[in-house]
Amino acid sequence: MSSKSIAEKYRPTTATLRNDLHLLKTDLDSLVTHAVDLTDAELSDAYEKLAGKVSSARQSARELADKAEYQLHHGIDVTKTYVKDRPKQSVAIALGVGALIGILLARR
User: Fold this and answer.
1) How far apart are CA 32 and CA 30, in angstroms?
2) For residue 54, which of 88, 76, 31 has the smallest C-alpha distance?
3) Is the pTM of this model over 0.70?
4) pLDDT at residue 6 above 70?
5) Cα–Cα distance between 85 and 81 in angstroms, integer?
6) Taking the domains of the chain in order of start, what are their residue ranges?
7) What sections of the chain are H helices per DSSP?
8) Is the per-residue pLDDT at 106 higher than 80?
9) With 50 as the cut, is the pLDDT of residue 7 above it?
């Protein structure tokens, strides 16, 4: 299986991140509740599991932020290209939007 197909299967979403954070919170609550009853070895094991989940949540957040950054830059590039290719239409659209905002604000 290629790395591209693995990356395509796991695309972080806000739902994925929300689920990871919920699982992390649940595990933290459980650990805090039962920490006094655990031995040193069990605490160490719980710490390792928690560290793995924190790392997973951090990775999901980072991937989601990278995806958002890519989409933002792509949108900026598309807008720049549109404005360069159609300067008169771009000025007309900006003028129309500005006039609409002015009318809406003047009503208040």
Assistant:
1) 6
2) 31
3) no
4) no
5) 6
6) 3-107
7) 3-9, 14-34, 40-85, 87-107
8) yes
9) no
Q: How far is CA 79 from the centre of its chain?
A: 23
Question: Which two three-digit tokens encode residue 3?
Answer: 């790395």
Question: Tokens 């239409």 — which residue?
Answer: 89
Tokens at residue 95, please?
Answer: 């003028």
Distance CA 6, CA 38 (A): 38
Residue 63 · residue 12 · CB < 8 Å: yes
84 CA to centre of own chain: 31
36's tokens: 């006094």
Torsion of CA 25, 29, 30, 32, to 10 degrees: 130
Is 99 in contact with 56 (CB distance < 8 Å)?
no
Taking only the tens place, the pLDDT of each residue in 11-69 is: 667 787 788 788 888 888 887 787 777 788 887 888 888 888 888 888 888 888 898 99
